[in-house]
Structure formats: structure tokens, C-alpha cells
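Field log, afternoon session.

UNIT: design team B
ACTIVITY: writing a sequence onto a fixed backbone
BACKBONE:
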């Protein structure tokens, strides 16, 4: 019998936190080796005691439960591509990087990817991650065809978007997409992949001296580009910015590049930030100098270039453990979405932060498209802004609380995978399909075995 199942076994606790390094807690980390073991753990656990964890790239307290069991799927990493059906079946512990290393050389890419490839398939489904193509292609959950889940009874079930033999949507599937691990442990999934001719992106970049011009141009150009994202200089009064958009390059388009392997993909981090940096290096002076350099290096006129998938999608992965740069206190990411008609809110948020001298490193602005059928997913039609800010700063905390109220008023919300601070009342006013999600949670996990610190903080399950 497994140690975990014995009564009164000595439990070993480790301190963990999210990517923002705030809210560290002691948890028991378990690395099950078999599905049977996962089922036994679930069947022999108390209510409110287990949560799954992927690569720990969510910023706040979503992949942890204080004094509880954190299940990691490091022994579940198998990947089975099916290039004839344009799909991959993989175990939930496989990372996007591992999947990409397999599929890119065979001429395929992920349908949706966030700004890091260091996440797991389980984490991507549980947060229903979005990328630079959401305005056209939706989020990762839109491409998932099948999920194998171990539910709160320890039962292995297969979920797909529609109920068998009819077109009625399968609520249990959509409660799991974006369900932040609270409906069960995802052990395997099948999702579509897209064909590519090369591992390069045809990118166009140019800079704008103010936010309004940048946003207008984003709207104008979105239909022409599969991928689109902007960086804003939050310390500039006009919120100048850089707009980058791109499309997969064809063989024809890169044939001028000499000695090139059309489908190469072998990224390595360029440097590593040490673990123990006592102070926050992202101070005002540093950010100001960096932003100035970043802006000036992009010419006013449009620059067209061919760059690798790695450089276009994952620039931050070049610096391993870059989150350590914020020092021991860590940082928070404030990611909001506001409806298209309320784009003035983006400027308002930036202005208010600027007003209190909150120093934020390259906020990212994206336009998102339609939401999907899931109940707790973040994306919906509108503008999303993500801003990294130092943690434990009273002035910033107070302002964000005020801003939350404005986000509620305009019908926006905060991204659960990034959140470490919103209140349960903000969450309940903004996630409007919570009731339907809770109904399905009760079916999949009647004894509420699965819980996390974010779920407790936001009272997601009750
Ligand atoms: C640099 C950086 C850039 C990012 N850019 C984006 C972006 O552009 N778009 C975007 O959407 N997100 C983005 N993110 C956030 C990230 O994609 C999500 O937080 C993602 O969920 C992290 O995956 P993970 O494997 O690290 O999961 P974790 O952070 O470990 O867990 C996240 C959630 O998934 C659940 N979970 C994990 N594995 C399983 C499983 N097997 N079964 C059930 N539940 C599970 C956890 O319980 C938790 O609730 C970014 C993060 C970083 C650090």
C-alpha cells in the first residue's frame, strides 16, 4: 500500500508559490506514478485537500493549497502526435516546449500559445490560455477534442465538447476547460494542431507616440494578421507603444535566407537570474532607461523581418527564472479585460498607475475575440491589459482595489491565472456564469475534494 494511504504517515511539507512568488505556503507535493495511484489518493482524501499543479507558471495562488496535497504530473509526459488527423494526444504533464520540440520539425504548431512555452498541457486546459491570435482563433480550450479526467470520486471519465450523438454541449467538459483544476485531475487530452511550412514568423513592427493611435491601428490591422500584440511604455505620459503583428512565414518567403533548416526548433535559455535577489531590481530608474531603449530601438516606419517562433512568441523564456528579478517580495500581475466599447478604461488604468508613480515593466495590450462556452474562462471580446507590479506596496494595492470597482462597473474582469489579490466580491460580480460552473463542480466533485488557495480566497466553490 502506498505511503499516502496509510493513516498518520509522516507528512513532508515543502514551501511553494506561484510565478509571482507571493503567497508562499507549505504543501505536501505528490508525484504519482500511475493513474491507479491518483485514484487511490483521491478516494482516501478528505474534502478540500487536493489540487493539481503543472509548471507553476500561474502567477498567484491557483496551483497550491495550504497544508494540502499538491499533485504534480511529472510522470505523465507522453506525447502521441497524429499528423494525419492534425492532432496530438498527450499526457497532462507534458510541457508545451516538449510538444513543440516534437511537432515543429514535422511541420505543425500549437493552435494557441501563451507568452511562455514552459507550461504544461494540464495547466493550459485548466486556465484555458489565450495567445496573440485570440482575436481570430479563440483560446486553447476551443481546440481540445477530448479530456481524460479523474473526478472527485476517483473515477476516470472522458469528456468531449458535445454530448455523444447529439449537438448538445457537454457542460462537464466546459466546466473543466478554464476550471482551474477544481473539477478533477486532467491526465490526458487530445487537441488539434495547425500545419506550418516553416518555423519562422513574418513580423511587422512599428512604434506609436500615443495610445489612441496605437489602438486604432490595432483595430484596423487585426483582420490582416493572425498574431498581434502591443507593448506600452507606462512611464510615458502619452503611453507610447510598439505594435507587433505576424503571420507564419511560407517556404517561399524565407527562401532568401541561406543554409536554413525550414522547420528547426531548438531553443535554449540565454541566461539565468539567481534565486536569491534580496531587493527588487525593477526600480523606477531601471524601468525608465529600459523603456526608452526598447522604444527607440523600434523605428517609426514599419520594420518587416523574419524571426524564429521562439523569438516571436517566447522572448521571456530566454531568461530563466526572470521572476527572481523582483526580489524576495515578488510581484503581481494585474490582467484585466474590458469590453470593446470601454477602451478608454485602458488609458484610465495606465494614467492612475502613472499618477502614483507605480513602476511597471512593459505592460502588454491585446485585443481578444469572442468568448467560448466555458464558464470560468477569462477571454471575451474586448481589450486586455497585463501589468507587472511590485507586490506588498500599499499604495498600489489600494489603487488596484479602486480600479477593480471600475472594472466591475464596465463589465470587465480579472484573469484567474494571474490573480493573487482580488476579493471574492469582485470575482462574484464579474464571473457571471459561476452558478452553472458550481452546478457542474457538484456533479464532478460532490465532496469537494479539489480546492486551492485561490478557490478559498474567492469562494469559487461555495
Ligand atoms: C511569462 C509568462 C507569460 C504568460 N503569458 C500568458 C498568455 O499570454 N496567455 C495566457 O493565457 N496565460 C499566460 N500566462 C499564464 C500561464 O499560461 C497559465 O497560468 C498556465 O495555466 C500555466 O500553466 P502551468 O502548467 O504552469 O500550470 P500551473 O500554474 O501549475 O496551474 C495553473 C492552473 O492549472 C491547474 N492544473 C495544472 N495542471 C492540471 C492538471 N493536470 N489537471 C487539472 N488542473 C491542472 C492548477 O490547479 C491551476 O489551477 C503566462 C505566464 C507566464 C509566466
Amino acid at each position: 500500500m502506498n505511503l499516502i494511504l496509510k493513516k498518520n504517515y509522516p507528512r513532508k511539507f515543502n514551501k511553494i508559490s506561484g510565478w509571482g512568488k507571493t503567497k508562499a505556503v507549505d504543501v505536501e507535493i505528490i508525484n504519482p506514478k500511475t493513474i491507479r495511484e491518483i485514484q487511490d489518493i483521491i478516494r482516501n482524501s478528505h474534502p478540500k485537500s487536493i489540487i493539481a499543479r503543472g509548471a507553476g507558471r500561474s502567477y498567484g495562488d491557483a496551483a497550491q493549497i495550504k497544508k494540502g496535497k499538491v499533485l504534480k504530473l511529472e510522470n505523465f509526459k507522453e506525447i502521441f502526435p497524429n499528423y494525419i488527423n492534425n492532432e496530438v494526444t498527450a499526457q497532462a504533464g507534458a510541457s508545451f516546449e516538449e510538444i513543440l520540440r516534437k511537432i515543429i520539425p514535422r511541420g505543425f504548431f500549437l493552435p494557441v500559445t501563451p507568452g511562455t512555452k514552459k507550461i504544461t498541457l494540464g495547466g493550459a486546459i485548466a486556465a484555458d490560455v489565450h495567445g496573440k491570435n485570440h482575436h481570430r482563433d479563440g483560446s486553447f480550450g476551443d481546440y481540445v477534442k477530448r479530456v481524460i479526467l479523474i473526478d472527485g470520486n476517483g473515477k476516470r471519465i472522458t469528456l468531449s465538447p458535445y454530448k455523444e450523438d447529439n449537438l448538445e454541449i457537454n457542460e462537464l467538459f466546459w466546466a473543466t476547460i478554464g476550471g482551474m483544476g477544481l473539477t478533477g485531475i486532467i491526465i490526458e487530452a487530445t487537441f488539434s494542431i495547425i500545419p506550418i511550412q516553416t518555423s519562422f514568423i513574418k513580423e511587422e513592427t512599428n512604434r506609436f507616440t500615443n495610445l489612441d493611435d496605437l489602438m486604432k491601428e490595432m483595430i484596423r490591422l487585426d483582420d490582416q494578421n493572425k498574431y498581434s500584440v502591443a507593448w506600452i511604455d507606462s512611464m510615458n505620459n502619452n503611453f507610447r507603444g510598439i505594435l507587433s503583428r505576424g503571420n507564419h512565414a511560407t517556404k517561399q518567403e524565407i527562401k532568401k535566407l541561406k543554409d536554413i533548416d525550414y522547420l528547426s526548433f531548438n531553443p535554449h535559455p540565454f541566461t539565468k537570474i539567481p534565486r536569491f535577489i534580496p531587493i527588487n531590481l525593477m526600480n523606477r530608474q531601471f524601468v525608465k532607461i529600459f523603456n526608452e531603449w526598447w522604444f527607440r530601438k523600434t523605428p517609426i516606419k514599419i520594420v518587416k523581418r523574419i524571426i524564429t517562433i521562439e523569438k516571436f512568441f517566447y522572448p521571456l523564456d530566454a531568461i530563466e527564472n526572470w521572476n527572481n528579478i523582483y526580489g524576495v517580495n515578488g510581484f503581481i500581475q494585474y490582467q484585466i479585460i474590458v469590453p470593446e466599447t470601454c477602451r478608454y478604461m485602458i488609458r484610465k488604468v495606465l494614467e492612475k498607475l502613472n499618477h502614483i508613480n507605480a513602476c511597471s515593466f512593459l505592460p502588454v495590450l491585446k485585443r481578444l475575440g469572442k468568448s467560448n462556452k466555458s464558464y470560468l474562462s477569462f477571454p471575451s471580446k474586448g481589450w486586455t491589459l497585463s501589468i507587472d507590479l511590485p507586490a506588498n506596496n500599499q499604495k498600489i494595492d489600494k489603487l488596484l482595489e479602486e480600479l477593480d470597482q471600475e472594472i466591475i462597473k464596465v463589465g470587465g474582469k480579472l484573469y484567474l491565472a494571474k490573480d493573487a489579490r482580488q476579493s471574492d466580491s469582485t470575482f462574484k460580480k464579474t464571473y457571471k456564469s459561476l452558478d452553472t460552473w458550481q452546478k457542474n463542480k457538484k456533479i464532478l466533485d460532490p465532496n469537494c475534494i479539489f480546492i486551492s488557495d485561490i478557490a478559498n480566497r474567492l469562494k469559487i466553490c461555495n
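LOG NOTE: The radius of gyration is 22 Å.
NEXT ACTIVITY: expression trials, pending approval
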